[in-house]
Specification:
about 180 residues, alpha+beta, 4-stranded antiparallel β-sheet, two-stranded antiparallel sheet, 6 strands, about 25% helix, globular
């Protein structure tokens, strides 16, 4: 049973990850995606509510997501090919070099003196900027590694993969990354 938000969100990520692995795709209306033929609510005070699309209308959030990751190495959280991704070698977070790309990608953070689980898994449309933000917020013991993404041009596509990684972590460590939620 999930005792707090951290547990609940970690368990939810694990269930979505297993669904993606077993079914081959994410649940239809997760990650801000809309069911084809419907528009998303604006979640603001402007009165724009979701519902069926009018003839000729389109909804950008109905674009399909991305397929599941390769689970053959799911139990090796620090491997350079964890979940079938091409992770760059670990580096100290204290010095994010200019060679880190300002493009879409995923990253993982851990401490050198921590256990065998990660502290954080993230995604960003600008890896360099996001890692520099984490550098300012963490101590000098933190390490990071990142993997660039192809064909993940929409936020929901990056969120699908990030959630799958968090879920795989939960299945391996029986908890979400320490600082995740």
């Amino acid at each position: 049973m999930a005792e707090d938000t951290q547990d609940r969100k970690g368990l939810e990520a694990a269930l979505i990850a297993v669904h993606r692995r077993n079914i081959g795709r994410s649940p239809t209306a997760n990650f801000g995606r809309m069911i084809p033929g419907y528009r998303q609510s604006s979640y603001s005070c402007d009165g724009d509510v979701g519902g069926p699309l009018a003839p000729g209308e389109s909804e950008p959030n109905s674009e399909p997501g991305v397929g599941p990751l390769d689970w053959s190495n799911a139990d090796s959280l620090f491997a350079d090919d964890w979940m079938g991704l091409n992770w760059k070698p670990p580096r100290r977070l204290a010095a994010v070099p200019p060679t880190v790309p300002a493009s879409d990608g995923l990253y993982r953070i851990w401490n050198s003196d921590s256990d065998d689980c990660l502290h954080y898994i993230g995604m960003s449309s600008n890896l360099k900027s996001r890692l520099q933000t984490h550098r300012r917020e963490r101590d000098g013991k933190s390490y990071y590694s990142y993997a660039q993404l192809d064909n993940h041009d929409a936020l929901h596509k990056r969120q699908e993969v990030e959630t799958e990684l968090i879920g795989a972590h939960w299945l391996e460590c029986e908890r979400a990354p320490t600082d995740q939620f």
